[in-house]
Amino acid sequence: MRPAKFEYFDPHTVGEALNLLERYGSETKVLAGGLSLVPLMKLRLAIPKYTVDITKIPNLSYVIENSDGGLSIGALTTHYILETSSLVKSKCPLLSEAASSLGDTQVRNRGTIGGNLCHGDPACEYPPVILALNAELKTVSSKGERTIKAADFFLDLFRTSLKPAELLTEVKVPPILPNTGEAYLKLTHRSGDFPVVAVAVVMTLDKRNVCKAVSVGLGSVASTPIKAEETEKALLGKTVNNKLIDEASELATRRIKPPTDIHASAEYRTEMTKVITRRALKAAFIRAGGEK
Q: Of all helices (H) and strands (E), which one includes residue 166?
């Protein structure tokens, strides 16, 4: 199918883009990479009257190390850049790991982290990752800038806390503590598919393998990405070993509400949440310097 008729704009500054969003309001869709929006428009599941293509706006694609050791990532930074950046690999390997598993080469060269997040699909790779990283998202509108915590960004299926005349411009990742291991694992039917279950883990240990901090993000198991809070509580402050990891993984299903669709049943997703969480926790534990 072809998309319905729409008017196309390609602003060259953030200010121009914001003016267009304010002028046309809820009848407008922002085009960042187009990998989610264009297919929806072709199927006429999305029928915007206006599209605002922000890909020609300079200075929205970057990865910068902050003074505290964290990262600032422009919203138009592509998956390929996150996959291959030496800075990302050294400062936040979790992002690089997630980006490298996303789609195929063409998708990674075209798609952007901002478009991926703003689509609001819990089956996308980055949502559980930024939850696990406790990242923040910077947005801008004519009223100024605001910062949204990752935990507050996703409201429901395909719904975020972005306002109609607001743009996501940057993702801020806090510094990773020493002795921290990160892992992103997902279950798919084929390479490049959306995950049936996805798990992102950030775990910090002391020299005795006691868990000083842990964050676990889950994807594809609810209408939004969610934190596995019971799993985190089971690990925090305790000496981590295989037995504890097994027990904590069983708790990962406490808050999930997995869908049944053409890819998997709710029951299958529930069981696989335990399995993939266990594997991700073990990988993060080993990468943090924990005993094998």
A: none
pLDDT band, residue 290 (cuts 50/70/90): confident
Q: Give CA–CA dist 19/35, Å, rounded.
A: 24
Between 242-250 and 266-287, two packed helices, what is the crossing angle to 10 degrees? Answer: 150
Q: Which domain holds residue 47?
A: 7-53
Mean pLDDT of the chain: 93
Cβ atoms of 205 and 240 within 8 Å: the answer is yes
Q: Which two tokens stand for residue 15?
A: 């200010």
Last residue of a domain, one of 143, 173, 203: 173
- Residue 292 is assigned to a structural domain of this protein: no
Which tens digit of pLDDT belongs to each residue from 68-118? Answer: 999 999 999 999 999 999 999 999 999 999 999 887 788 888 899 999 999
Burial code of 71-89, b = ≥16 C-beta within 10 A, e = fewer?
Answer: bebbbbbbbbbbbebeebe
Q: Is there a domain that residue 1 lies in?
A: no
The whole-model pTM stands at 0.92
Q: Is 105 inside a domain boundary?
A: yes
Number of domains the chain contains: 3
What integer pLDDT is reported at residue 292 of this predicted model?
A: 54
Report the 10 Å Cβ neighbour count for 90.
11
Q: How far apart are CA 102 and CA 191, in angstroms?
A: 9
